[in-house]
Structures are given as structure tokens and as C-alpha cells.
Design brief:
It is a single chain. The protein is mainly beta. Helix content is 7%, strand content 41%. It contains two helices and 15 strands. The strands form five sheets. It has a six-stranded antiparallel sheet, with no helix packed on it. A three-stranded antiparallel sheet has the order 9-8-11, with no helix packed on it. It has a two-stranded antiparallel sheet with strand order 4-5. The chain binds fructose -6-phosphate (F6R) and zinc ion. Zinc ion binds next to loops.
Length: 193
């Protein structure tokens, strides 16, 4: 790992990073239980499309370091629900994250363990600050074109996927009458215990 200052480049046409340590590819099959329309989910599983990709420059997992990279959510829908990331709380809850939208149209769905929620629109040039304690999920609300964001978060943050896998997000972003709408997640349930 580099110990001196270094640079990397982001392609403005496709958001690709010139160098990276991790390339994460998430397919539909990794999203079991997250999409509301289960028959639509099951019908798409045989094709198991790639929903999103992350290119990350890895840094030591310590508080003073900053992980950074690019998230690319491909367009599509499962039933009426747009293509989205799994979403997570940071394991160290008191860690924030900054996203900068480079390309596409989308939304960040967020909530706290205490039940506050927020959905912020993402479009090119927009900077989103996700405060400590807020779980976050990116949603591509355009039916054509990738949603590309640059992100930075503390090296020690870690990812708690389990809480969202179990309870989901309180809000979903669905297409209704040709536009993106925020609805209550009828299947949301508080963590047991
Ligand atoms: C890191 C972060 C992003 C996401 C990426 C994929 O803390 O928030 O880099 O990891 O957008 O989403 P998930 O991690 O939810 O699969
Ligand atoms: Zn995060």
C-alpha cells in the first residue's frame, strides 16, 4: 500500500477509475428479500443480471484513513422497483460518508436506527453528506444510463449489511405513473431483540 501521496483518475465518460484495489460486482442473487415484488425477482433470477459495481482504492482500516472509489448502479427495475445497492449501516455507526454524483439520476435512501429517514436526489454535480448513524442505499431512477457516484468514508467504518438484510429500509423508491415515488416499505420490520 502506498505511503506517499498518490493520484488516480476517473473517466468522465464511464466513471472508471484508472487504478483500484477492489472491484466488487453485485448481481441480483445477492439481493434476496430486498425487492418488494418477489415473483418479479424470482423470474429474473435465471438471468441474474449485474445490478451494480464498486471500484475501490483500499486503505488501512484505521480511523485516520479514507477509503474512496466509484459506485456504478446499472439501470433497471425489479417489478416497479428501481435497481439499487444492498445498503448498509457502517459497523462503526459514528462514521460519515460523502458522495459526489458524476453521472445519471438517482436517489440515496437513508435512515437512522432511531427511525428518522431521508431520501435525497442525486444528479451530476451534487454532493451528498451522509452523517454518522445513517444507513444508506443508492437507487438508479433512470431507466437508461448508469448512476455513477464517487464516495469517501473513514477507513475504520466497516459495513453492517445484516441489519438491512433482516429489516429492509423503511422507504422504497418505485416507479409509479412513469416517475419515481417514495413509498412506505410494507415489509419493514424492526430488528428483533
Ligand atoms: C461505502 C459505501 C459505498 C457502497 C457502494 C455499494 O461505505 O457506502 O461505497 O459500498 O455504493 O453499496 P453496498 O455496500 O450497500 O453494496
Ligand atoms: Zn457506506
Amino acid at each position: 500500500m502506498k505511503q506517499r501521496p498518490f493520484t488516480s483518475s476517473i473517466s468522465v465518460t464511464d466513471g472508471a477509475l484508472s487504478e483500484y484495489d477492489n472491484h466488487i460486482v453485485r448481481r441480483l442473487s445477492a439481493m434476496k428479500g430486498q425487492y418488494l415484488d418477489e415473483p418479479a425477482y424470482a423470474a429474473m433470477l435465471s438471468q441474474d443480471p449485474v445490478l451494480y459495481e464498486v471500484y475501490e482504492i483500499k486503505r488501512p482500516e484505521s480511523a485516520g484513513e479514507l477509503m474512496h472509489g466509484i459506485s456504478i448502479v446499472h439501470p433497471g427495475k425489479v417489478g416497479d422497483e428501481y435497481s439499487m445497492t444492498k445498503g448498509h449501516f457502517h459497523t462503526v455507526l459514528d462514521t460519515a460518508e460523502v458522495y459526489y454524483c458524476l453521472k445519471g439520476e438517482g436517489a440515496m435512501v437513508m435512515e437512522t436506527p432511531e427511525g428518522e429517514w431521508s431520501v435525497e436526489e442525486l444528479r451530476p454535480g451534487r454532493v451528498l453528506y451522509v452523517p454518522p448513524r445513517w444507513a444508506h442505499r443508492s437507487v438508479n431512477t433512470a431507466l437508461r444510463g448508469d448512476l455513477v457516484t464517487f464516495f469517501i468514508y473513514p477507513g475504520n467504518a466497516g459495513h453492517d449489511y445484516g441489519t438491512i438484510e433482516q429489516q429492509g429500509f423503511r422507504k422504497l423508491v418505485m416507479e409509479h405513473d412513469g416517475r419515481a415515488q417514495i413509498i412506505d416499505n410494507p415489509r419493514w420490520r424492526a430488528r428483533e431483540g
